[in-house]
Amino acid sequence: MAKLIGLPVARKPLSLKGNLLVNTWRGVVYVARWPRKRGKNLHPKTTEQMEWFRQANVLAKYLAPEFQIVAKQATHGTPLYPRDVQIATMAGTLFSLRYVDGRTLHSMATRTKVSESLDVLGDVEGSLLVRSGTLWVPVLPGLAGQYLAVNSTEDGVEYVTPPAPPKYGWTIVARQATGEGEQIDLTGLDFTDIRMVKFLFSNMRVSDTNVSVKVQLYTNGILRTTGYDWISNAWSSSGGSALFNSAADNGFPITGGIASFKVKNGLSDSFSTELTIGRPASTYYKNFRSESVVTFNSGATGRAECAGALQRTDDVTGIKLVPSSGTLTGGQLDVLVLNKDPL
Questions:
Q1: Looking at the 3D structure of the chain, how many domains does it have?
Q2: Phi/psi at 255 (5° precision)
Q3: Given 103, 235, 271, 300, which is the most exposed site by the fewest CB atoms within 10 A?
C-alpha cells in the first residue's frame, strides 16, 4: 500500500516577545507591534460597551431562524456579515452600506419598515409630507394638470389649476348669420389689447339687383355714417377694371365701384369679403383693408380691393352691412381677433 506523504507543515514564524509579533493570516506573513496589555482600570463607558457587545454577539447566535435568514439576505453580496446587521439592529440603528464614492445603500427591509412608519402620517398614493407649524402633515395629490404652489398665506403648499395659456393667432370671438329680410348689425364688441380684427362675410346674398354694399363701423357704441376715406381697385371678368377713391364717404365699399361688379342678379348672385382693421381699440385712425369676390349667376366673377381709414380715434365696438337697396337674404359674418404678439 502506497504511503502518502503530505507537505511539510508550515511553522509559525518566531516572534520577539514583548517587541514584535510575527504571524500568518491566510498564507500571508505579517509583522506587528507586540500587543499592549489591557489596563485593569477601564473607563465605565468602555466597560459598558464591551459588555453590550459581548451580549449582542451571544444574542446574534441564538436569534430565531427567520431573523437569521433576513440578515443573510440583507448582507448577500456585501463585505458585511449577518451579525453586523443584527448588532446594528440591536443598537437601534438602521442598517446601511456606504460605498467609497459616497453613496449609501439601505436594505429593502429597512425601506419597508420606514415606509410603514410614514404611513402613520398618510397612506394615500401620491401624497407629500409637509411640515406645518406643529406636525408633519400630508398634502393629498391634486387633479390632472394641476401643479404644486405656495398657498395664499405663504405657510404651506397646495395644488392649483394653472391659468389658461394666452391665446395667440386668430380666434373667432363672434358670429352672426342672416336670413330672408335680416341684416348684419353686430354691436357690443370689445377689442381691448387686440392687435388686429378681421371681419369675414361669407356667401352674402341680397334681394335686389345692381346692388353695391358698404360697411359702417360703430365706435364707442355709435354708428358712424361719415368720415370714411378710401381708395378702391375693382376687376370684372366681364367688364374690365377701374380705380376709384373717395373722401369723407359714408362707409367702406366692399362691392361696387364699377357697374359690372355690382351684385346684379339678386338672389342668384353672392359675394364674400374679408375686411381687416388694425388696432381697433387704439387712439389712432382706424385703418382698414378689404378684399371682396362676387360670383355671378352668369358664371362671371368680380374682385375688388379697398384700403383706407375711418377718421375716428375712439374704440371700434361694432359693424353693420349696408346694401344700397333691398335686404339681405343669406350669409354669415365671423369676427376674428389677433391677440398680442407673444414676443
A1: 3
A2: -140, 170
A3: 103
User: Does residue 320 sit in the same domain as residue 243?
Assistant: yes
Q: Are residues 177 and 268 in the same domain?
A: yes
Phi and psi (nearest 5°) for 44?
A: -55, -35
Does 121 map to a domain? no
Look at residue 109 and tell me whether its pLDDT is greater than 50: yes
Q: Which residues pair with 307 in a beta bridge?
A: 231, 289
**Residue 263 pLDDT more than 70?**
no
Q: ∠ at Cα 61 (56, 62), nearest 5°?
A: 100
What the block records as the C-alpha cell of 199 is: 371681419
Judge whether residue 319 has pLDDT over 90. Answer: yes
CB of 149 within 8 A of CB of 160? yes
Determine contact, residues 30/12, Cβ cutoff 8 Å: no
Reported as type and span, the H/E element at residue 328 is strand 328-338
User: Which residues constitute the domain of residue 60?
Assistant: 45-113
pLDDT digits (tens, 9 = 90+) for 222-257: 999 988 888 888 777 766 666 666 655 788 887 655
- Decide if pLDDT at 7 tops 70: no
Strand ranges for 189-327 from DSSP E: 196-206, 213-219, 222-223, 228-236, 240-249, 252-253, 270-278, 286-295, 301-310, 316-323
pTM (two decimals) = 0.53
Q: Does residue 76 sit in helix, strand or coil?
A: coil
Q: Cell numbers at residue 268, please?
A: 342668384
26 inside domain: no
Q: What is the pLDDT of residues 164-179, one digit of tens each?
A: 776 667 888 899 988 8
- Grid cell for residue 50: 464591551
Alpha helices in the chain (DSSP H): 44-61, 65-75, 82-90, 108-118
The confidence band for 342, taking pLDDT boundaries of 50, 70 and 90, is very low
What distance in Å separates the CA atoms of residue 150 and residue 37, rounded to the nearest whole number? Answer: 64
Cell of 222: 355709435
Q: Is the predicted pLDDT of residue 77 greater than 70, yes or no?
A: yes
Residue where the block lists cell 381708395: 231
Same domain, 196 and 321: yes
**Length of the chain counted residue by residue:** 343
